[in-house]
C-alpha cells in the first residue's frame, strides 16, 4: 500500500519537498564546482565579440609569422581563442574538455597536418572525423589482441611479438585508413597510431572503446562566423600554443 503514502507526501510535504530539492541542487552545484579543476570559460556578449572583431581588423594583412612575434597581437589572439575555441579545447589549448573529444592543441600533433596551411583550413572549414565501429567485425577474442597490437605499435614493440591474427586483421580492416605503416592519412584525418599521442586515451579500456564504438569527432567551421583577420590571429595562436 504505497500509493496513499505518496499522496500524503505530495500534499503535505510540497514546501519541504521543494526545500529539499533546492538543498540537493545546491549540494550538487557545490560538488560539481569543487570537482572542476578546469578553468571557467567566459561566454562573451555579442558586443564583446564585435569589439574583438574590430580590434582584429588592425592586424589584417599581417602574416602569421609576424603575428606570432607580436606581443599585442598574441594577447588579442588569446582573447579570440578563449572566445571561440576554449569551450572545447580549454583556455590554454590543453583540453579535450567534457565530451568534446577535442585535440589537445598543446601537443602540436594534428591528424590533418600541423602546417600553418593545414591549421588555417581546420579553423576555416572545420573537420569532421569518422572511424567506423569495428568491435563486432573483429570479434570479441580478436578485439583484445587488436588492442594489444595497436598499443604495441606506439611503443615500438618488435612486430614479431604480435599476435598473427591481429596483424592480419589490421591489414584487412585498418590499413585502408591508417596506412601500412600505421602513420595515418592527413587527407582523412585518421590518427597516426605510432606517435605516442592518443587523442582518445591509451589505456587498454580507452583503445578498446575507440575500436568498438568508432569515432565521430567534429571541429566546427569558423568561416562566416569570424573574419579572415580573426582566423589569421587564431592560426598564429594555435602555432604558439605548442609546447
Ligand atoms: C564544439 C567544440 C569545438 C570548438 C568550439 C572548437 N573545436 Fe577544434 N576540435 C574539436 C574537436 C572535437 C576536434 C577533433 C576533431 C577530430 O578528431 O578530427 C578538434 C580539432 C582541432 C584541431 C586539430 C585538427 C587536426 O588536424 O587534428 C585544431 C587545430 C583545432 N581544433 C583548432 C580549433 C580552433 C582554433 C578553434 C576556435 C576557433 C576550435 N578548434 C574550436 C572541437 C572544437
Ligand atoms: C574508415 C577509416 C578508418 C578505419 C577503417 C579505421 N580507422 Fe581508426 N581512425 C580513423 C580516424 C579518422 C581516426 C581519427 C579520429 C579522430 O580524429 O578523433 C581514427 C582513430 C583511431 C584511434 C584513436 C587514436 C588516438 O589518437 O586516440 C585508434 C586506436 C584507431 N583508430 C584504431 C583503429 C583500428 C585498430 C582499426 C581497424 C580495426 C581502425 N582504426 C580502422 C579512421 C579509421
Verbal overview:
- The protein has 243 residues and is mainly alpha-helical.
- Helices cover 56% and strands 4% of the residues.
- It folds into 2 domains: 103 residues, Cytochrome c-like domain (Cytochrome Bc1 Complex, Chain D, domain 2), CATH 1.10.760.10; 88 residues, Cytochrome Bc1 Complex, Chain D, domain 2.
- Helix 1 packs across helix 2, helix 5 packs across helix 12 and helix 9 packs across helix 10.
- It is elongated.
- One heme C binds next to strand 1, helix 9, helix 10, helix 11 and strand 2.
Approximate helicity band? 55-70%
Low-confidence stretches: 1-13, 25-36
* Estimated structural class: mainly alpha
Order of helices and strands: HHHHHHHEHHHHEH
Molecular shape: elongated
What share of residues are in beta strands?
under 5%
Rg from Cα = 24 Å
**Ends apart, CA distance between termini:** 65 Å
- Ligand list: heme C
Specify the CATH homologous superfamily of the largest domain.
Cytochrome c-like domain
Query: Looking at CATH, which topology of the largest domain would you report?
Result: Cytochrome Bc1 Complex, Chain D, domain 2
Oligomer: single chain
How many domains, in number, for the residues? 2
Amino acid at each position: 500500500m504505497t500509493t496513499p503514502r505518496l499522496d500524503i507526501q505530495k500534499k503535505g510535504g510540497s514546501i519541504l519537498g521543494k526545500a529539499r530539492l533546492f538543498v540537493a541542487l545546491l549540494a550538487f552545484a557545490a560538488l560539481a564546482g569543487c570537482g572542476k579543476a578546469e578553468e571557467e570559460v567566459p561566454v562573451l556578449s555579442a558586443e564583446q565579440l564585435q569589439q574583438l572583431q574590430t580590434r582584429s581588423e588592425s592586424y589584417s594583412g599581417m602574416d602569421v609569422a609576424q603575428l606570432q612575434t607580436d606581443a599585442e597581437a598574441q594577447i588579442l589572439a588569446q582573447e579570440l581563442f578563449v572566445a571561440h575555441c576554449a569551450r572545447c579545447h580549454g583556455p590554454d589549448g590543453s583540453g579535450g574538455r567534457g565530451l568534446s573529444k577535442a585535440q589537445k592543441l598543446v601537443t602540436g600533433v594534428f591528424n590533418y597536418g600541423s602546417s600553418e596551411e593545414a591549421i588555417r583550413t581546420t579553423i576555416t572549414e572545420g573537420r569532421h572525423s569518422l572511424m567506423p565501429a569495428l568491435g563486432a567485425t573483429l570479434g570479441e577474442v580478436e578485439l583484445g589482441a587488436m588492442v594489444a597490437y595497436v598499443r604495441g605499435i606506439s611503443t615500438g614493440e618488435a612486430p614479431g611479438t604480435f599476435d598473427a591474427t591481429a596483424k592480419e586483421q589490421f591489414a584487412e580492416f585498418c590499413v585502408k585508413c591508417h596506412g601500412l605503416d600505421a602513420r595515418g592519412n592527413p587527407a582523412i584525418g585518421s590518427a597516426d597510431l605510432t606517435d605516442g599521442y592518443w587523442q582518445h586515451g591509451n589505456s587498454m579500456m580507452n583503445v578498446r572503446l575507440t575500436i568498438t564504438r568508432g569515432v565521430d569527432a567534429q571541429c566546427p567551421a569558423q568561416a562566416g562566423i569570424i573574419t579572415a583577420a580573426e582566423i589569421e590571429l587564431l592560426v598564429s595562436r594555435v602555432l604558439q600554443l605548442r609546447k
